[in-house]
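TA notes, week 10

Several of you asked for a full example with nothing omitted. So below is the full record: structure tokens for the whole chain, then the designed sequence directly under it. When grading your own attempts, check the secondary structure regions first.
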């Protein structure tokens, strides 16, 4: 009996979260000159995972697996901005660029892990 592998599902969820965060960051940058616009950010991925009920189950005496569950929808929250300008706009382009770079690094890490796991999985299938 083969146990399902949920690493790809977890990586897919994080990729969706990263896309939602990048969209939120893009919206902040697009509204950088909009009077009274408040910068936004989404709930951290770790918080979404904490709400996800991952149940560990033994599939074999030598294996441990878990059942997948859907993460709750991303919630938009107001970000803690670095400064507020005269127009009461709280978007800091520098802060948004830093967030965008962080999203890029997390996406690259996610992709690298999935590629490595895929190579390992394919290697084990070829030798079996």
């Amino acid at each position: 009996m083969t146990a399902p592998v949920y690493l790809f599902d977890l990586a897919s969820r994080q990729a969706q979260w990263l896309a939602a965060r990048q969209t939120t960051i893009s919206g902040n940058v697009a509204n950088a000159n909009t009077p009274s616009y408040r910068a936004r950010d989404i709930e951290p991925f770790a918080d979404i995972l904490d709400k996800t009920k991952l149940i560990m189950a033994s599939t074999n005496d030598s294996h441990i697996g878990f059942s997948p569950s859907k993460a709750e929808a991303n919630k938009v929250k107001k970000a803690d901005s670095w400064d507020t300008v005269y127009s009461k706009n709280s978007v800091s382009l520098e802060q948004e660029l830093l967030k965008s770079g962080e999203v890029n690094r997390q996406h690259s890490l996610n992709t690298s892990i999935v590629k490595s796991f895929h190579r390992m999985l394919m290697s084990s299938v070829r030798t079996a």
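The first helix runs from residue 7 to 30. Use that as a sanity check on your answer.
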